[in-house]
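Possible regression after last week's pipeline update?

I re-ran a chain I had predicted before the update to compare outputs. Posting the input and the new output here so someone can diff against the archived version. Not blocking, just want to make sure nothing changed silently.
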Amino acid sequence: MDYKKFNGTSYRGCFKMPYAKLVEAIGEPNLIGDGYKTDVEWGFERDGVVATIYNWKNGPNYIGLGTVEDIDDWNVGGHSLDAMDVVSALLMQR
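New output (post-update):
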C-alpha cells in the first residue's frame, strides 16, 4: 500500500459506531495514528478516491483516559468530498 496517498487528507464528515463494530465491518486499522490527537486510523482507495477513518481528540492518547475500544465517534478524511461516499459504501457492504 502506498501510504503517501493518505497524507494530507482533511475532514469531510463524521459518523458514530462502536470501535468493535467498525473493526468487524472494515477490519483492523491499517494506518498509524499520530500518537497524540489520533489513536487509530484506516485508509482506503476506491476508484481513485482516497478516504481515511480516524478518531480525533477523543481517545486515550489525547484525553489520557479510556481505551481505543471505548471510541465510537469517527471522522472521515479525504482529498475530496467523495471520501464520504467511499466510507458509506464500505460500511453498507458489510
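Follow-up from reviewer: compared with the archived run. The radius of gyration is 12 Å. Marking as no regression found.
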